[in-house]
Amino acid sequence: MSADLVSRLAAILGPSGLLADEADMASYAIDWRRLFPGRPLCVARPASTAEVSEVVKACRAAGAAIVPQGGNTGLAGGAVPDASGGQVVLSLTRMNKVRAVDPVGLTISADAGCILKVAQDAAAEAGRLLPISLAAEGSATLGGVVSTNAGGVNVVRYGMARALVLGLEVVLADGTIVDMARQLRKDNAGYDLKQLFIGTEGTLGIVTGAVLRLVPRPRHTVTALLSVPSPQAALDLLALAQEELGDTLSAFELMSGYSFDLLKRHLNLTPPIASGDWFVLLEAGASLSGLREAAEAALAAALENGTALDGVIAETGAQATQLWALREHITDGEAREGKSMKHDVSVPIVDVPAFLEAADIAIENGAPGAKVNAFGHLGDGNIHYNVVLAPGQDGAAINTLVHDVVARFAGSISAEHGIGQYRVDELLLRRAPAEIALARTLKTALDPDDFLNPGKVLPAGG
């Protein structure tokens, strides 16, 4: 059956559309963090939505599960096969075209395999902005971005990927192509079915194309780095920035002094301001003039009232890039420090300082010797609360410590990275039974044979 399926897929896809050699499949068989190795039967690389449909039909007839994969940059193992050798990886990377850009209607239409940076550049050429901004934007694909409801640094202003999706083209588990790739801002004609496929990690259907909302490209940008005495002071600074800068505020990142210590020791990166216990990196953008003056006035007020201790505003685009490099390399410094347990959590924004205090106490009491590397998107309540382990410490026990605190604040154990196969068991523990039951109902309705990405988000078999 396996040999017959490989032959059938080769006939559908042609010589450049199928990989079956183990060496050729190696990069598709393991996640970016190299935590979840798998062994696919083969890698199907369709070049069109019609070919995706035919691949799905052939695999379903043969009883071989499909694992959709984009740029394979996810952090939860949601796009890699298991080790059985019987699953087919469906890579969308050959479907990589920008279909259309409408600078007046502010939309971009593209294949699912289009690299995010390629789509950003296409929007920029039209004088517009695709405001999804991720560290992996040079390799992440739009299909993956949509299927994981990706976040990033601009959620404060523009929302998660879901907020930017206007339409989708999807292939269902039986091979049916559903074309919902409409460019409409207003469409109240029945159920908003595209929502079923955003953030569900390819478990309900395979995204093959997307229409995303663009925004006017800001002519003026302000990027600033400040040291603050505490997370509460950072929250006060956020309130001040919201009041003074309004909806021009696009990013507001919180980073601990330990994060910057890792940058200095391991990567020789040093902030251009005095050291402190906490730092804030903020960015604002506007089309009208006066932004810099407003930002300078707001930051001066923060320094005067003690909310901020020190600060610098980038004078050039190159300086802004240097400030962002501090934020973007924190995980690199952490990796060189030692083994860590990563927690992509969110709580109500107003509760972030209390959460950090409670989680720190839980780690201090339950895992003495561990070090907390806390950083992330304070502006939307998402903190990457990573714990660098001391020798001999139990990572699973630390997960429980952190997630118990998250539960106390009615938060989420996955703010933007998704569940994948990494957090399946914990999702079952942390979500209400009624929510899990509803998720299973949807899965059964759209994929009754558990054929699409089994074992991701929900346990294999439902």
Structure notes:
This protein is an alpha+beta fold. The chain contains 15 helices and 19 strands. A hairpin with a 4-residue loop joins strand 5 and strand 6 (107-111). Helix 12 runs antiparallel to helix 13.
Report strand %.
15-25%
What is the CATH topology assignment of the largest domain?
Uridine Diphospho-n-acetylenolpyruvylglucosamine Reductase, domain 3
Oligomeric state: single chain
Note poorly predicted spans: none
By CATH reckoning, the class of the largest domain would read Alpha Beta
Main β-sheet description: 8 strands, antiparallel
Q: What coarse outline follows from CA principal-axis ratios?
A: globular
What count of helical segments does DSSP give? 15
> Radius of gyration over alpha carbons?
23 Å
The CATH architecture of the largest domain is 2-Layer Sandwich
User: What is the first-to-last residue Cα distance?
Assistant: 25 Å
- As a percent range, the share of helical residues equals 25-40%
The structural class is alpha+beta
The average pLDDT value, as a whole number, equals 96
Number of strands: 19
Number of domains: 4
Briefly, what is this?
This protein is α+β, with helices and mostly antiparallel strands and 462 residues long.
SSE order and pairing:
Elements: H1 2-13, E1 18-19, H2 22-25, E2 42-44, H3 49-62, E3 66-69, E4 88-91, E5 98-102, E6 107-111, H4 116-125, E7 128-129, H5 142-147, H6 155-158, E8 165-171, E9 177-180, E10 206-213, E11 215-216, E12 220-228, H7 231-245, E13 249-256, H8 257-267, E14 278-286, H9 291-304, E15 310-313, H10 317-328, H11 330-337, E16 340-341, E17 344-346, H12 352-366, E18 371-377, E19 382-388, H13 395-408, H14 424-430, H15 433-446
Parallel strand pairs: 2-4, 3-4
Antiparallel strand pairs: 1-2, 5-6, 6-10, 7-11, 8-9, 8-10, 12-14, 12-15, 13-14, 13-18, 16-19, 17-19, 18-19
Helix pairs in contact: 1-3, 7-9, 8-11, 12-13
